[in-house]
Amino acid sequence: MARLTKAQREWRPGMPKKRRSTKVMFASTVLLLEAFVMFFATLTVFGLRRGEFPPEIILGVGIGFSVVMVVACAFLTRPWGIGLGWILQVVLLLTGIFEPAMFLVGVLFGLAWWYGIRSGIRLDREAAQREREQAEWEAAHPDQDAGPGAQSQP
Fold first, then answer.
1. CA-CA distances (angstroms) from residue 118 to 14, 99, 111, 131, 135?
2. What confidence category does residue 13 fall into, taking pLDDT thresholds of 50, 70 and 90?
3. CA 113 to CA 68: how far, in whole Å?
């Protein structure tokens, strides 16, 4: 028998689906893209600067940092998760010390992170407002099965 998640165990017919945060979705997307870029940047530094730094250090730190970015996606729903993401943005920017092109990459991803968080907060706020208005409409019109604009079934 497959193990059920907490959400699956608590689900009952007719329960509304919990809305997922757009902010978390945008932040996760940026962090995952950064993890891929960090992996390939690690390979670049490994190929170009192998004589300057021990290969084990280059690969260990670079791949480790990529893994941290992926794992950080799991913590974005926690109050400190977005702060962790900002710290990762600074660390990505600082990788430019080892490969100067990463300064540009860090700035661009920092802007993407900022825009994703800002837009996600706005979209989440708008979705919550629409949800409240829908609940008010349904409370005011209990005899209606569907919200405004719904087609009646023949």
1. 33, 29, 10, 20, 26
2. confident
3. 16
Q: What angle do CA 94, 69, 122 make, to 5 degrees?
A: 95
Two tokens, residue 80: 């400190």
The domain spans of the chain are 20-138
The one-letter code for the residue type at 22 is: T
Question: Does the CA dihedral 4-7-8-9 come out positive or negative?
Answer: positive
Tokens standing for residue 106: 């860090």
Q: What's 41's DSSP letter?
A: H
Which pLDDT belongs to residue 43? 93
Q: Which percentage of the chain shows pLDDT scores above 90?
A: 63
Structure-block tokens of residue 44:
């670049």
